C-alpha cells in the first residue's frame, strides 16, 4: 500500500495508470520523457551503425575503453617480463 502511494506520487502522470489488460495506457507529458523517446528513436533507427556508434558520447566511451584495455595489456606484459627475468646478482 505504501509502495503504491509512493509510486503514484513519483509518477509524472496526472491520473493513475490504467488497469492491465484494458489496452489503453497514459503517456507522460514530460520533457524528460520526450527526450528519452527521442534518444530511443535514434538508437532504433536502422542506419547500419552499431549501438556504440550511434552517439558521439558513446564513441568517446568506446575509445576510452579500448585505450584503457591497451594500456592494461601493455602493463600486464611488462610485469610478466619483469617476473620472468630475475635481477642479476653483481
TrEMBL record:
Descriptive protein name: Uncharacterized protein
InterPro entries in the cross-refs: COX7a (IPR039297), Cyt_c_oxidase_su7a_sf (IPR036539)
* GO CC annotations on file: mitochondrial inner membrane; respiratory chain complex IV
Instruction: Report if keyword Cell inner membrane is assigned.
Output: no
Q: Does the keyword Secreted apply?
A: no
What's this protein's family per the entry?
Answer: Belongs to the cytochrome c oxidase VIIa family.
Q: Where in the cell is it found?
A: Mitochondrion inner membrane
Write down the species: Plakobranchus ocellatus
Please state the protein's primary subcellular location: mitochondrion
Key words, A-Z = Membrane, Mitochondrion, Mitochondrion inner membrane, Transmembrane, Transmembrane helix
GO BP annotations listed: mitochondrial electron transport, cytochrome c to oxygen
Membrane-spanning intervals of the chain? 60-80
